[in-house]
Design goal:
single chain; about 160 residues; alpha+beta; 6-stranded mixed beta sheet; 3-stranded antiparallel beta sheet; globular
């Protein structure tokens, strides 16, 4: 994931310490029930689409922007699937971030899936019964998108 300019500015004064950041994930389904995935340039693994909202950007607008930037697919957010504080991540350069992820189920409304930026090595639609190897995060979010269950959140202890 490319580092947004506002985070570079924060890092100039915050150093490598933990940054608490918003994150958005989009589970995009087409009319055939297929899921849109990208093979990330940084990990070389297939993943669901996601990114970081710009300051002041609404989460749903971020989902739409990230999907288009990475895949050239236009989508419409339909509902919030989950809201979850993720575990901290330490990147190769030593930066530490923790994300509050908001995941949306989105419906594709146009465009042709293709690599549209330098964050993706490949982009493709997959039937849900023929997904490539994905991490648990992606599999869980896809399962939530296929369900009519209410928005998931970690209940209070």
């Amino acid at each position: 994931m490319a580092t947004p300019d506002f985070i570079r500015t924060l890092r100039a004064s915050a150093g490598r310490q933990l940054l608490w950041l918003p994150g958005v994930t989009a589970i995009v389904l087409d009319g055939q029930g297929r899921v849109l995935l990208n093979r990330r340039a940084d990990t070389r693994r297939w993943a669901v689409i996601g990114g970081i909202p710009e300051p002041g950007e609404q989460p749903a607008a971020c989902a739409v922007r990230e999907v288009f930037e990475e895949t050239a697919v236009h989508c419409v957010p339909e509902r919030v699937l989950s809201v979850q504080a993720l575990q901290p991540v330490t990147y190769g350069n030593g930066d530490v971030c923790q994300y509050m992820d908001i995941t949306f189920r989105c419906r594709a409304v146009g465009g042709e899936a293709r690599v549209n930026d330098d964050e993706s090595l490949d982009v493709a639609w997959f039937p849900v019964d023929a997904l490539p190897e994905l991490d648990e995060f992606g599999l869980t979010r896809i399962k939530q998108a296929l369900s009519d269950a209410p928005t998931w959140f970690d209940p209070m202890s």
